[in-house]
Amino acid sequence: MKSGKLIVLSAPSGSGKTTLVKDLLHKEELNLEFSISAASREPRSGERDGKDYYFLSLREFKDKIKADEFLEWEEVYRDNFYGTLKSEVQRIWDHGKNVIFDIDVVGGLDIKHIYPERTLAIFIKPPSIEELKIRLKKRKTESEDKINMRVAKASTELATAPQFDAIVTNDDLEKAKQEVYQLVQKFLEV
Questions:
Q1: Domain range spanning residue 122?
Q2: What residues have CB less than 8 Å from 121, skipping those under 6 apart?
C-alpha cells in the first residue's frame, strides 16, 4: 500500500471520539479524510451506507476476512464485526490525504502495530465510567442491555490506554478538542 499518515482516535463507546474526529475534519490545514469502517450490524437511525459505515451482511464480512481485504477487523460483540478495508485506506492515500480513524481500541492498536512510524494513536478517556453510562443513555440509540455491555467492555478498554501514543481525558469538550488538535498538528509536521 502507498504510504501516508494515519491518525487513530480510540475510546470506549460514549467517550466523545466521534465528536473530536468531526472537529478535526473541519481543520483543512490537517488534510484529513475519514476512514469509513465496515460493520456487520444494522444501521442506526440516520446512518447511511458508504457515509457512516459500509454496512455488510455477516456473510459478506466473513468473506472479506477470508479474502484478506481488511487492514484490521474485530468481532466486537457476538456476530457484530467492525473493520477497516485496505481499499478504503488506499482510496484516501490516492487522494493525497492523511487518514483519520474513529475506531475501537483493538483496531486502533492493530493499525499502530502495522504502521508504527506513520500512526499517531490517541486514546480518548471518559471522565468516569458513571459519566460514560450517562452519555450512552442520553443517545437513546440502544437498549439497557446493550448499554450495560458497552459499559462492561469500557473497563477492559480503559486498561489499554497506556499502549497509545497519547491519552486525552474528555471532561471538557473544548479543552479536549484543542489538545487533540495540537497532538495531530505536531505529528503531521514531522
A1: 6-189
A2: 8, 10, 108, 109, 111, 112, 163, 164, 165, 166
Count of domains observed in the chain = 1
β-bridge partners, 45: none
**Residue 1 within a domain:** no
pTM, entire model: 0.86
Q: Say which CATH number the domain at 29 has.
A: 3.40.50.300
Which pLDDT tens digits describe the chain residue by residue (190 residues)? 556 899 999 998 778 899 999 999 999 999 999 999 999 999 988 999 999 899 999 999 999 999 999 999 999 778 999 999 999 999 999 999 999 999 989 999 999 999 999 999 999 998 877 877 777 777 777 778 877 777 778 888 999 999 999 999 999 999 999 999 999 999 999 7
Q: Which residues contact 20 (CB under 8 A, 6 or more apart)?
A: 9, 124, 168, 170, 176, 177, 180
- The answer to whether position 73 is within a domain reads yes
Residue 37 per-residue DSSP state: P
In this structure, what C-alpha cell is assigned to residue 178?
A: 484543542
